[in-house]
Amino acid sequence: MKRWSPTLAGALLALGAAAQAAHAQDPAGPTAATVARRAVPNPIVAPRDFQRAVSRGTRTITGAPGPRYWQQRADYRIRATVDAAAKTLTGSETITYHNRSPDTLRIVWLQLMQNVHQAEAPRNEEAEVTGGYRFTRVAAGGQPVPESEDLRSGSGYAVDFTRMAIRPASPVLPGDSVRLELDWSYKIPQAGAGARMGHSRDNLLYLAYWYPQMAVYDDVVGWQTDPFLGAAEFYMGYGSYEYTVDAPEGWVVMGTGNLTNPERVLPADVLQRWRRAAQSDTPVRVLGAGGFGAGKATLRGANGRLQWTFRADSVRDVAFSMTRESNWDAARTPVGVRNGDGRTDYVLIQSLWRATAPRWANMVKYSQQSITHHSGFTGVRYPWPHMTAVEGEEIMGGGMEYPMMTLIGPYNAQGDTALYSVTAHELGHMWFPMIIGVDERRYGWMDEGTTNFNENEAFNDFYRGAPNAHLREQRQYVSFVNNVGDPELLRWTDLQQPNLSGFASYTKPATLLSALRGLLGEETFMRTYRNYARTWAFKHPKPWDFFNAFNAGAGRNLDWFWSTWYKEAWTLDQALGSVTSGGANTVITVEDRGSAPMPARLLVTRQDGTTERREIPVETWLGGARSATVSVPRGGSPVVRVEIDPTSSFPDVDRANNVWTR
Ligand SMILES: [Zn+2]
Prior knowledge:
Blueprint: H1 6-24, H2 32-35, H3 48-56, E1 73-83, E2 88-98, E3 108-111, E4 134-140, E5 143-144, E6 156-160, E7 163-167, E8 177-187, H4 192-195, E9 197-200, E10 204-207, E11 213-214, E12 216-218, E13 222-224, E14 239-248, E15 252-255, E16 258-259, H5 268-277, E17 284-287, E18 305-315, E19 320-323, E20 327-336, E21 345-353, H6 363-378, E22 386-391, E23 399-402, E24 405-408, H7 416-428, H8 430-435, H9 444-462, H10 469-483, H11 498-505, H12 507-520, H13 522-535, H14 543-554, H15 559-567, E25 574-582, E26 585-592, E27 600-606, E28 611-616, H16 618-622, E29 627-633, E30 639-644, E31 659-661
Helix pairs in contact: 1-10, 6-7, 6-9, 7-9, 9-12, 10-12, 12-13, 13-14
The chain binds zinc ion.
Zinc ion (ZN) binds near residues 2, 425, 448 and 451.
């Protein structure tokens, strides 16, 4: 999700500039306190549940899944009937849940995100009260199960707001599966599930978090049943879906997966333009917003209704939109070669937007570049048939991601660049967390931080010659840390202080990926990053897998880096002390005034313009030093300038003291 807005960051930047000016006037020489022995980072110790997974062989200490790695699978069949006027959704759902774990499951857990809209539901954001789910049938293994207060014996089900437990009549054995059947209905909130779904202006519905979904049972934590409170996002397992949306005729439905019956819902001319778009590199207007008259946008249906059926495999969720007044633009974009046949694969790019959002005329272009770029940068080719962006003014202002689908605000006021950026961001989420299935509920930074990093990379590609987006992110990091605070990233997302939570999920971890890239160098970083993405595609990496993957890729233990930046909230402030010439050398003193140890990379410039590089290795600081010296030969042209970290690779919180000039 993209809700942690540039507006806030802009205000912080202004604050940051003032604070830095004040800093610069400080006579910040070394004091007794700064030369005293410093704290050094401890090794990262994975929690016991992760260590147990390593000893059982489902995880490793090299960052790859273990030889005994397993994960669950669920296959969904859902029929959803939408009353577009009354704004209700009625569903009939069958889940076949496959237990691939070595454990016997007496109870299975589901997530009921819509129940965040129950009156008494615990929440960390405000939410409209719609009442949530009303169940008319719950069955397991073909047997109806009653609602029950006590699931310790006998079959039954219990609902605890956004969590549902079902105890089938017999346990689900390893290698076995259970069929769950649920019939339900609820009132669709206007801006629901934390402004991630809902309806707008009687011409748009966007359904997400719309059906009872299996909670994840994984090899590390077992059932992950943390409730949905509104803020922290989602952890979902993989599976297949076949779902049918029963909608009034005249409404165009688009959703995650392949539309399997287009000729039964779309008129021949619309269908023909849609198929042409799939072969076109430039946008084709499949349907204009004014073209939704009776029988024009869709076929006529029996009793005025049509059934749209979608099928998706290897996805962790499905969402769908319904519109009766949107422009529908589409084209294709290349994603590289997915398999060994040497032929470039293409993906259908779609945009559904209302005339009130004119900047969306560029959306297909933005989406084409984003999907193509992310496919190359991550090394994981976009695996699905389409990517569809839906304009959702009144439901949301920012953007929200779902497999193959995104919902984004109009961005009329924020401008074209902001609309591009949010698009590159939401489409970046197709990789993290849609393909690389991280637990966002606990570790938002594994999802949002990585996605901000990928967004910045795409931005630099789209706006060649514009100021570097990674450096902009780093400046936002610095001003936030200097003015607001600094969160510990391993703290679970819902447990972050509210004012630090967005920063913990987005800016800090994105900045740290850039720092890691600077630390390891481009080649090692990119090889490791892509390897991590490919290795964990359609699986569930934990923070320690990420750390271990980079330790392995770097060929050295980086615990000092993980501990400093992810476990602790330490900051980097390296400063130039003195530069003195005497004898044969010019001696440069670097002071480490912050708490984060990082290598100090120096660029030394002489009067004749020649330059030399020196580095104080991180081991110097890890050994407890607060200051260190390097020297260059004094002979020849005098040293006129020394700069620490001239490429701004690392997030130094006071760059004013990084430069010495004669
Ligand atoms: Zn996001």
